[in-house]
Amino acid sequence: MSYKIETTSTKNFKIIGVLTFDTVINAGEEGIDLFEFVNDIRVDLQEVTHIDSAGLVLLISWMRYARLRNKSLQFLNVSEKILALAKVSDLDQIIPFS
What we know:
Blueprint: E1 3-7, E2 12-19, H1 24-35, E3 40-51, H2 53-68, E4 72-76, H3 80-88
Parallel strand pairs: 2-3, 3-4
Antiparallel strand pairs: 1-2
Helix pairs in contact: 1-2
Organism: Candidatus Nitrosacidococcus tergens
Domain STAS: 13-98
Pfam families: STAS_2
């Protein structure tokens, strides 16, 4: 299982594939590198095919990164599976899903 982060415009990014324990370390670092020079970050999650609790932790770590640098971050096109996992983990009110 793998993932890919595509830059779709200056401030828009799309994640394709899986965000799991096996992929989040690399995905996290890659995301931070891509977000460095962007102040209004939008991450499209529509093509995330699988996510586990480590994937949710990744989203939270990106939120922390953005907050500490006064950047705006939104997660777009969130699937019902991601929302359900966030609800079970009581994170649905913390993560900025749009």
